[in-house]
Amino acid sequence: MNLLSCSSNHCPLSSGFVATIDSPLKSSLSIPHLGWGQRRDNVRNKRRLSKIVAYHGLKNPPYKLDALEPYMSQKTLEVHWGAHHRGYVEALNKQLEKNDILYGHTMDELIRVTYNNGNPLPEFNNAAQVWNHDFFWESMQPGGGDMPTLSLLQQIEKDFASFTNFKEKFIEAALTSFGSGWVWLVLKREKKCLAIVKTSNAMNPLLWNDIPIISLDVWEHAYYLDYKNDRAKYVNTYMDHLVSWNAAAARMARAQAFVNLGEPKIPVA
Length: 269
Ligand SMILES: [Fe+2]
What we know:
Elements: E1 2-6, E2 17-22, H1 25-29, H2 36-49, E3 51-56, H3 74-96, H4 107-115, H5 124-137, H6 150-160, H7 163-175, E4 181-188, E5 193-200, E6 211-217, H8 224-227, H9 231-242, H10 245-255
Antiparallel strand pairs: 1-2, 2-3, 4-5, 4-6
Helix pairs in contact: 3-5, 4-5, 7-9
Bound molecules: fe (ii) ion.
């Protein structure tokens, strides 16, 4: 068994994966006393038995687990990232062991493939939740909150009339999400504007071709340890102290490679 590692930690759209290639070809080629025909048949038979499986890794948040204190506790990160997020990764890897055809996809490709045009494969929920959580950790930063930088602020004011109105709409969306799910600020490719969308369970805006800019996890596991059932306090704290407008500005800058918003370009903070 050989282990090949392929790290893509720099890419927010995919987590690193390790490909395990279970191939007995090397040992079969070294058998000296077989004739060429026998060896060829042996290799063919072994090749049919070879198995290639993709394993995805658990990415670390881009800060220490206590870095968001006191607004999001280390205990919450230990449970939310260290148990829930890890659980999605491990469950996905177990599923992928049984499904060679899903080998080699990045995580965002895997979400689209396993969504299967609205008839999701068993792997979809775990794949989407891995992506969603990676994106969520990178949507926050120590010392976050406050206001976006100038150009992003101008785009928000253009599409929501004011930053205050955007903030109210985002909070309202989070508080009116029924059950478990996510709230997103996305860039609409066709309409060329920012919008707030809500998704249930593991659903992800990539599925209808939106470009995510920031996200908020409104599953109860995201806030219960710190805020019990007070989702409003959690959501307001996220907007005031946690959301990373630096990450949002960087994502907007990348998004403008695909969506022409006109000048000026939004600079990376
Ligand atoms: Fe979560």
